[in-house]
Write a structure and sequence with these properties.
The chain has 532 residues and is of the alpha+beta class. The protein has a single domain, classed as Cytochrome P450 (Cytochrome p450, Orthogonal Bundle), CATH 1.10.630. Helices cover 51% and strands 8% of the residues. It contains 20 helices and twelve strands. The strands form four sheets. It has a five-stranded mixed sheet with strand order 1-2-8-5-3. A three-stranded antiparallel sheet has the order 4-12-9. Strand 6 and strand 7 form a beta hairpin. Helix 8 runs parallel beside helix 20, helix 9 packs antiparallel against helix 14 and helix 9 runs antiparallel to helix 15. The termini are far apart.
Length: 532
């Protein structure tokens, strides 16, 4: 262990020990001028080391999870888990561990990782007669937490979460989505115009950044009644940078929670950086509050999320404040933009590195539409290969790559055949599940055909081991919106352009890092107008 490794001793204890002076005459000594530091140090080290050894032995041999396989160091300490998370390659490390140990792996003293289709159902799905696996402390301290407000993402109480979900469900219903399609198409078309402008002179541009800004504008239009004009500039909107930066800090925040003593020390050492992060987060919250207040004041019947939310609040007399609506809207910006743009980026990368897949998609899309204007959500939903491409993109590169941690409820419960006592932290990692050879044949190959009924080989591909939108009552509300964005954007892009990967050496998966969500490498491409 490096000498610079921070002490786990609670920091407030150190000054008090240094200042301690005992009346040694009471102990038979002639003077109070000195203190038996060697004796005290020996006692202190003995207590600390003894306690540590006792905990280590308990975790290894007597803990309820001691029978489950996994790295021995991970069974003893949270250090390996935090190291994997902070290193940005945690999903692939978990994939490696599941390949070595099987469907269940002990990844921390009180935590298990699963990677089977059954574990998705057991942890996140609804099971009659079973209690809900609530969210873990990982979700505490998110945006708006300092204002005493929980959002649809951070709320851990199942009853309160259910009330929030009912409030927001109207905004994401299929009927609402049909009304919102025009707003979605407006930003998609602006993105297509941006790509068209890049065809002059064979310009190289980062299409992943374009997807990100398009999705950001769409969710701004639907959530706040106005786009962020992200597509109109080469600079990131301040909210995008701060939002993604905060996600990167999510790995650090998780480590802080696992090591409170270290957190107190780093809270002092990194107080300036932490203050800047808090300031940026507060600025985004203020922006969300301002935009929501402005949208509510408009009293508009515009077919967006806010209209539906406000209608439901009024008609059903739901007690929800403007501040809480702002918290929900802030979550929508993140959940509704970054994940969708990630799926589009991955799909584009694999289309450009697999000529046969691209040729099949071009044939389907260009054969289905005689004009650009004919491409819509309804018409693209009739294209099976397009949908299969989207499904496969979300399988090989899960838009939400983090295993969402849940707590085994009171009385214990069974996960994938394993009975677990209450209080154990469990999760199913999407990457470890969708790339495991036990779940998919040739898992690293991009094969959209596996999602087509005519090509499915029973027993080889367990399609329900890929769950990009998660299951159950806490599944993604914006699933239908995400499908609309993915299908219409890819269809219009493939219909209008022939794309070429500018960086043929790009290793998309190898250069990606995960800090709650993916930190993606640039996806540099050239585009030219498709020839009739």
């Amino acid at each position: 262990m490096p000498s610079s490794f921070p002490s786990f001793l609670p920091q407030p204890l150190l000054p008090s020990l240094l200042q301690l002076r005992l009346p040694l005459t009471m102990l038979g000594y002639d003077s109070e001028e000195s203190f038996l530091w060697p004796a005290l140090a020996t006692l202190l080290v003995t207590i600390v080391v003894g306690t540590g050894i006792q905990k280590l032995v308990y975790n290894l041999y007597f803990h309820p999870l001691s029978k489950y396989p996994g790295p021995k160091l991970a069974a003893c300490s949270n250090v390996p888990f935090s190291f994997w998370f902070l290193g940005g390659r945690q999903p692939y490390k978990l994939l490696e561990l599941h390949g070595k140990y099987g469907h269940v792996v002990r990844v921390a003293p009180n935590e298990l990782s699963f990677n089977s289709a059954q574990s998705f159902r057991d942890i996140y799905g609804f099971r009659p007669g079973h209690k809900t696996f609530i969210k873990s402390e990982f979700y505490d301290g998110g945006s708006f937490a300092s204002r005493g407000v929980h959002s649809i993402v951070s709320e851990r109480d199942p009853v309160a979460h259910g009330q929030m979900r009912r409030l927001l469900a109207h905004a994401f219903s299929n009927s609402s989505l049909k009304e919102q399609e025009e707003l979605v198409a407006k930003s998609v078309d602006r993105f297509i115009k941006l790509v068209k402008a890049k065809t002059d002179g064979g310009q190289i541009f980062d299409i992943a950044k374009g997807f990100e800004r398009m999705a950001f504008d769409i969710i701004g239009d639907l959530g706040f009644g106005q786009t962020f004009d992200a597509l109109d500039t080469d600079e990131d909107h301040p909210w995008i940078g701060t939002m993604l930066g905060a996600l990167t800090k999510g790995a650090l925040a998780d480590s802080f929670k696992r090591f409170p003593a270290v957190a107190r020390l780093l809270g002092v050492v990194l107080r300036r950086q932490i203050a800047l992060l808090v300031e940026d987060t507060r600025r985004n919250e203020d922006m969300a509050i301002e935009l929501v207040s402005k949208r509510i004041a408009q009293s508009s019947n515009r077919k967006d999320f806010m209209t539906r939310i406000l209608e439901h609040r009024k008609q059903d007399r739901v007690q929800v404040s403007d501040l809480q609506i702002a918290a929900h809207a802030s979550d929508m910006v993140l959940a509704g933009s970054e994940t969708t743009s990630t799926a589009l980026s991955c799909a584009t990368y694999h289309l450009l590195t697999s000529r046969s897949v691209m040729a099949k998609l071009q044939s389907e899309v260009r054969g289905a539409f005689s004009s650009y204007e004919a491409i819509s959500d309804a018409s693209t939903s009739e294209l099976p290969y397009l949908q299969a491409v989207c499904q496969e993109a979300m399988r090989v590169y899960a838009p939400l790559p983090l295993g969402l941690p849940r707590v085994v409820p009171e009385g214990g419960d069974v996960v994938d055949g394993c009975f677990l006592p209450q209080g154990i932290i469990v999760s199913t990692n999407p990457v470890a599940a969708s790339l495991d050879p036990a779940n998919f044949g040739d898992p690293f190959a991009f094969k959209p055909e596996r999602w087509l009924d005519t090509a499915l080989v029973p027993g080889v591909d367990q399609l329900d081991a890929s769950q990009p939108f998660i299951l159950g009552a806490r599944g993604c509300l914006g699933k239908s919106l995400a499908w609309t964005e993915m299908r219409t954007t890819l269809a219009k892009l493939v219909w209008a352009f022939d794309l070429e990967l500018a960086d043929v050496e790009l290793d998309w998966h190898g250069q990606s890092r995960m800090y709650t969500l993916w930190s993606k490498p640039p996806l540099k491409v050239r585009a030219k107008l498709a020839q009739p």
